[in-house]
Amino acid sequence: xxxxxxxxxxxxxxxxxxxxxxxxxxxxxxxxxxxxxxxxxxxxxxxxxxxxxxxxxxxxxxxxxxxxxxxxxxxxxxxxxxxxxxxxxxxxxxxxxxxxxxxxxxxxxxxxxxxxxxxxxxxxxxxxxxxxxxxxxxxxxxxxxxxxxxxxxxxxxxxxxxxxxxxxxxxxxxxxxxxxxxxxxxxxxxxxxxxxxxxxxxxxxxxxxxxxxxxxxxxxxxxxxxxxxxxxxxxxxxxxxxxxxxxxxxxxxxxxxxxxxxxxxxxxxxxxxxxxxxxxxxxxxxxxxxxxxxxxxxxxxxxxxxxxxxxxxxxxxxxxxxxxxxxxxxxxxxxxxxxxxxxxxxxxxxxxxxxx
Length: 356
Hints:
Layout: H1 20-23, E1 58-62, H2 67-78, E2 86-89, H3 130-137, H4 141-146, E3 158-161, E4 166-169, H5 172-181, H6 199-214, H7 216-221, H8 226-246, H9 260-279, H10 291-301, H11 312-322, H12 341-345
Parallel strand pairs: 1-2
Antiparallel strand pairs: 1-3, 3-4
Helix pairs in contact: 2-5, 2-9, 6-8, 6-9, 9-10, 9-11
């Protein structure tokens, strides 16, 4: 009996060579290998169409459940952009998600009136689902995907321009760079998370972290065949072991300075023991059993502003409930180690809190 199933994405959906998805594309041609589709919108704050402004003209849509969106939430918070760029949180549910048609009942993330922790935001632009935002900015977006037999890719994060009613970007790697640098004249902090002298080192570690860890966990979890899963699992642990060794030599990925590369890694590690270890079958080791990765996870968690962006309840519910192609019952687990504050607060092996 064949074990081959339907995986997410096709190689032809990866897009041009300038996208993050193309740069770090899955090179595995095994049937059932996952190929993440390219994000659609790649405009830039600072262009003539989208000049930098400080009056909440631009609005950031994120899901607290999604690691790609979470990285934007972290940078938004660290750069103190609360009064410069608006923020709306989606709910944790992705209902009717499937790799196979029909997709009529799939509308992407829904919106809720309040988030968690210190955040409470309403959706100011009248959208009920993230689909509404995409269709407003780009009429016919759903049809473009469905005409190819694909589920519409309603990605978050989204950086939206409320003036032109257009999407600036739906690519997290680009959005965190814009949040870091595009609003410098308005931001109350001089923090720079992408210093020029570290860019080459950042690109080097990103080339490991993105394909083997950030996307690597998804390549395991969304594999549609045993061989595709085993290939992804091997690549994932090669990457995890490299980063474990690197963090045994230095505090952060590029040395002693915290950068966007660390944010990119952290939001995946923050979900690892709760979700990826079991749900995505990456289950060789938990992060808590890898001393250098676990130290890094807790070290970053203590940086002022980071903790308040982490919503483990919504993370857990989203993955186990929404992804029925992985977990058909939709039942989420209880009694996880990460739900005990001691998992995060253990600090006897940590250096002094990092100050930005």
